[in-house]
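User: Hi! Is it possible to get a structure for several chains at once, not just one? Here's what I have:
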Amino acid sequence: MKHPSFYSRSSLLVASLAIQLITVTASGGGGSSGVTSSSTVAALKNYNAMFTFGDSMDETGNICAASSNKTELDVLTCTRSPYGETYFGRPACRWCDGRVVVDFIAQALGLPFVPPSKAKGKDFRRGVSMAITGGTAMNFSFYKSLGIEDPVWNHGSLDTQIQWFKELMPSICGTERSCKGYLKESLFMFGGYGGNDYNVQLLELGLTPLQAMNYTPKIVTAIANGVEKLIALGAVHVVVPGIFPTGCLPIFLSLFGDAAGETDFDGTGCLKPHNRLTEYHNSLLRKQVDALQRKHHNSTRIMYADYYSLVYQMVQEPEKFGFSKPFEACCGAGGGKYNFDVTARCGMEGATTACRDPSTRLSWDGIHPTEEVNKVIAGALLRGPYCTPPILG
Ligand SMILES: *[C@@H]1O[C@H](CO)[C@@H](O)[C@H](O)[C@H]1NC(C)=O
Ligand SMILES: *[C@@H]1O[C@H](CO)[C@@H](O)[C@H](O)[C@H]1NC(C)=O
Ligand SMILES: *[C@@H]1O[C@H](CO)[C@@H](O)[C@H](O)[C@H]1NC(C)=O
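Assistant: Yes, the chains can be modeled jointly so their relative placement is included. Here is the combined structure:
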């Protein structure tokens, strides 16, 4: 198998996971005021189900159900301790010490945790997750055309995930017509997508953040087209998240920080070029979300979730949120400012124990946030102000 970059496959994987988290912080800048068009559709108090899409940030088990490849599962360390130690008491195929954002939202809405779509014999009527580690906005064929062969990027792109959902629809809501009636009372969490699309470019193709911006319009259009597909299937309430501020993630800081010049860091200690890429992605996405809402104002309620602003604020003023050491992975190896080593990532040899109190930390494994951060994000999506409009109205 050829690898076009000098990064190992496992480092890429990690990076892709990290990106997702990072995206949360990057989209911000403008706070929550980006979406201006409003919907005439009211928020619901009781959603009948929650359907989720995305990547490792929202992983709730698909990668473990889908991969029978032992080598790959060894790279995918979310199957190992100390993942899951805070809440589940065991690795729960989530990239976190406990619950991910969609878990907290499910609990707040009185819904069960979303089972992975690849689980056999489950009832999906109250929700199901299509999200899978490595998920991208663009098709794998697109990355193949750029010379990418690593199968980790081919687990389930956005279009593939929508296809999985379509195949499950008869078991969830019956006919096309009855599905329209059912799905209009469901909550759709569509991504964040995009993090891995940039991970492929930065970590595998070795592009600079500036070069990666060339593909942003394509990536954002793929996400917007995905939202249109969901609407055509009957979705009414759709949350579309931007991505984290990747320039603040331990993985990128440790991979690119050394080579970066002083002027590449912002006053907080994040990498400006990476955050600029994320902000660019988020600003284009917000525009497209706004245009979609305007187009479907009388029949849908599209909610833009500004992960970037919220996470960036946590990085800038961690004490305000009860956090410390915002750049240090809670579970990792190598110590120092970032405690991140691609060859000894959380769950691997040398990194089998977490920091003493994960609830005081932002970064769980150098890529993904801690359960505590996910809890704050979920609260902000449900009640605002980092979701426009908030899920609960
Ligand atoms: C299993 O995964 C490893 C690592 O990604 C890969 O090199 C190998 O080709 C895969 N094996 C099969 C049978 O797919
Ligand atoms: C992915 O491939 C399918 C089938 O070839 C195509 O219809 C779709 O437009 C592609 N999606 C993206 C985001 O390029
Ligand atoms: C929503 O608006 C579109 C055009 O803007 C119109 O064709 C459609 O009939 C409207 N639907 C409802 C339910 O009012």
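Residues 9-29+47-388 form a domain with the Rossmann fold fold (CATH 3.40.50). The chain has 14 helices and six strands.

User: Great, thank you!
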